[in-house]
Design brief:
The chain is built from 15 helices and 22 strands. By secondary structure, the protein is an alpha/beta fold. The protein has 3 domains: 19-197, Jelly Rolls; 289-433, Alpha-Beta Horseshoe (Leucine-rich repeat, LRR (right-handed beta-alpha superhelix)), CATH 3.80.10.10; 453-589, Leucine-rich repeat, LRR (right-handed beta-alpha superhelix), CATH 3.80.10. Strands 11-12-13-14-15-16-17-18-19-20-21-22 form a 12-stranded parallel β-sheet, with helices on one face. Strands 1, 2, 3, 4, 5, 6, 7, 8, 9 and 10 form a 10-stranded antiparallel β-sheet that branches. Strand 16 (424-426), helix 10 and strand 17 form a beta-alpha-beta unit. Helix 9 (409-418) runs parallel beside helix 10 (436-446) and helix 12 (493-500) packs parallel to helix 13 (517-526). The longest helix has 13 residues, at 212-224. InterPro entries: F-box-like_dom_sf (IPR036047), F-box_dom (IPR001810), FBXL15_LRR (IPR057207), Leu-rich_rpt_Cys-con_subtyp (IPR006553), LRR_dom_sf (IPR032675).
Length: 590
């Protein structure tokens, strides 16, 4: 449905102009969602068009929902260590990009949140028109608004209208970035409304308040000629002219200066390098770049940035390029050059949402990164299926994240056969795999060290695959079987899991309506180390079996019983009173 209208602006501080009001026309990109790739329920695609739910509150399938909330996911066996040097003002965990019909100078952005609001931490606008036939020479992103995560009282719906700043280019591409760590449950977004005018507004004294951090950042960029150019100048040796004296730093041990500088962010290191010869030497020392995360600067990283960093990154071991390089910012040749020079020592490589990646990139990674142990390709949904065959050459892999990718069965079987050191594997929402029982059988035979496995929304695994998996991978501590419709409790698959996998700390059986009291009692008897359990949607579990589980599993900290028909709010309150250390979740719909 076309959802735009025009109204006359009554704001006298602006020239008389027509304000256009638009709902998102299309969802272009996102990092994760709760829903399936083959339906609309709980997917980011629900953000296109007018609202479906607002102003109602509650849990509705017609909304957009990200994959995680809270901090429980950061306390799982599959949790990854954070990168050092992450800027203190970078809070984003997920994002979604929305296209609108008409480019406008934004005057307001309304975000319709219908359940557990408060996750949005940043709103950005892009200079590129996704519907233009001619790609722009430069893609520029501008922060309209940003703020640290804040706790919102109550899960009720609201219209969130952040106080945005004015920008000097028209846009029809808006990006929301979210942080759900303070939320008590999944946030749900219904629609985004963009207000704007065709002609650039004249700034007035009554203009929208701008955050002081934004002012400082903008002033720095103005002096250096723009965000991307500024960062690249900081990387560039050519930006340095005359060196002042080294002050008292000459008297400090080299190692002490290195330790002090290790607390600086990457842009601060680049700025400091321009102060004196001694600090330039320290700031360019490859030892300062052992762990390098460029994700916080995703909007400013391009081929030139990587070229400037090459000489500093010859010893890099952890590299995070997640979210970077899209819309032509990083080319295949630029990425390949960087990896050939800087990839030999890599142990961990994060490339989530890297839509510039193609088969050549994965081939270069496989040939160059001979020590690689962790590879994250989450939501790299543009990678062609044949590209994944190259991963099988990286026999040292211990962690592989393929969430929302087009990996196919043949490539995955090859990976499992040759990467026997795998300890952590994510295959959530991998819809191209035809026979998950065969995949599970291969895991049981080859991946004896597997500790965590994500099979979220795998469409065809049965009790046979579970039996092979449980028999062969007995070190498993985390298993996500959420929204796996072909698993039925009557086959004994969940009992088999409980008896064969005593080390389980996290088990998600989300939306499996066949989970029953027998399964819960088997978990209570055998999986006493259980910390997180999701049985959302079951009709067969009683308060009695839950109490047995809570009494047996002393370390249990998260229990989701949303939409469990026998577990009403009264039961939840009673269990909360008896077991206050457990976070018992109960969602609702109005």
């Amino acid at each position: 449905m076309n959802s735009r209208r025009a109204i006359e602006s009554n704001n006298r501080a602006l020239p008389i102009n027509v304000e256009i009001v638009q709902y998102a026309k299309e969802v272009l990109d996102f990092s994760s969602h709760y829903g399936s790739e083959n339906s609309m329920s709980y997917t980011m695609w629900n953000l296109a068009g007018i609202q479906n739910v607002y102003p109602s509150s509650g849990d509705f399938t017609q909304t957009a929902v990200f994959r995680t909330y809270g901090t429980w996911w950061d306390q799982c066996p599959s949790a990854r260590l954070p990168f050092k040097r992450t800027p203190p003002n970078f809070y984003s965990q997920d994002y979604v990009e929305l296209a609108f019909e008409d480019p406008v100078y934004p005057t307001a952005v309304h975000i319709l949140e219908t359940y557990h609001p408060g996750a949005v931490v940043r709103v950005l606008a892009c200079s590129a028109n996704p519907y233009s036939q001619n790609p722009p020479a430069e893609v520029r992103w501008e922060v309209l608004w940003s703020e640290a995560p804040t706790k919102v009282n109550g899960p009720q719906a609201r219209q969130f209208t952040p106080c945005i700043k004015q920008i000097n280019f028209p846009t029809n591409l808006i990006r929301l970035e979210v942080n759900s760590s303070l939320l008590d449950y999944y946030t749900e977004l219904d629609a985004v409304v963009l207000h704007g005018v065709k002609e650039r507004p004249v700034l007035s004294l009554k203009t929208t308040m701008i955050d002081m951090n934004d002012i400082d950042e903008d002033e720095d960029e103005e002096k250096d000629g723009g965000g991307m150019e500024s960062l690249n100048k900081q990387f560039s040796v050519a930006a340095l002219k005359e060196w002042p004296t080294n002050g008292y730093f000459d008297k400090l041990p080299y190692e002490l200066i290195q330790l002090i500088l290790s607390h600086l962010t990457v842009p601060d290191l680049c700025r400091l390098a321009q102060t004196c010869k001694l600090l330039y030497q320290h700031c360019c020392d490859p030892l300062q770049y052992i762990h390098l995360s460029l994700q916080p600067y995703w909007a400013r990283i391009n081929d030139t940035s990587l070229e400037y960093l090459q000489s500093r990154c010859t010893l890099v071991q952890w590299l995070n390029l997640s979210w970077t390089g899209n819309r032509g910012a990083i080319s295949v040749s630029g990425f390949s050059r960087f990896m050939k020079i800087c990839g030999s020592e890599l142990v961990r490589l994060e490339l989530a949402c890297g839509h510039f990646l193609n088969e050549t990139c994965l081939e270069v990674i496989a040939e160059t990164c001979v020590n690689l142990q962790e590879l994250n390709l989450s939501s790299c949904d543009k990678l062609p299926p044949q590209a994944f065959n190259h991963i099988a050459k990286v026999g040292s892999l211990k962690r592989l994240i393929l969430y929302r990718t087009k990996v196919e069965q043949t490539a995955l079987l090859s990976i499992l056969n040759f990467c026997s050191e795998l300890q952590h594997l994510s295959l959530g929402s991998c819809v191209m795999i035809e026979d998950y029982d065969l995949i599970a059988s291969m895991m049981g035979a080859k991946c004896k060290k597997l500790r965590t496995l994500d099979l979220w929304r795998c469409k065809n695994i049965t009790e046979n695959g579970i039996a092979e998996l449980a028999s062969g991978c007995q070190l498993l501590e985390e298993l996500d079987l959420g929204w796996c419709p072909t698993l039925q409790s009557s086959t004994g698959c969940f009992t088999n899991i409980a008896r064969k996998l005593p080390n389980l700390q996290k088990l998600f059986l989300t939306a499996n309506r066949s989970v029953c009291d027998t399964d819960i009692e088997e978990l209570a008897a055998n999986c006493t180390h259980l910390r997180q359990l999701d049985i959302l949607g079951t009709r067969m579990v009683s308060p009695t079996s839950l109490r047995k589980l809570l009494e047996s599993c002393k370390d249990l900290s998260l229990l989701d019983v949303s939409f469990c028909s026998q577990i009403d709010n009264r039961v939840v309150l009673e269990l909360n009173a008896s077991f206050p250390h457990v976070l018992i979740k109960k969602s609702f719909t109005q």
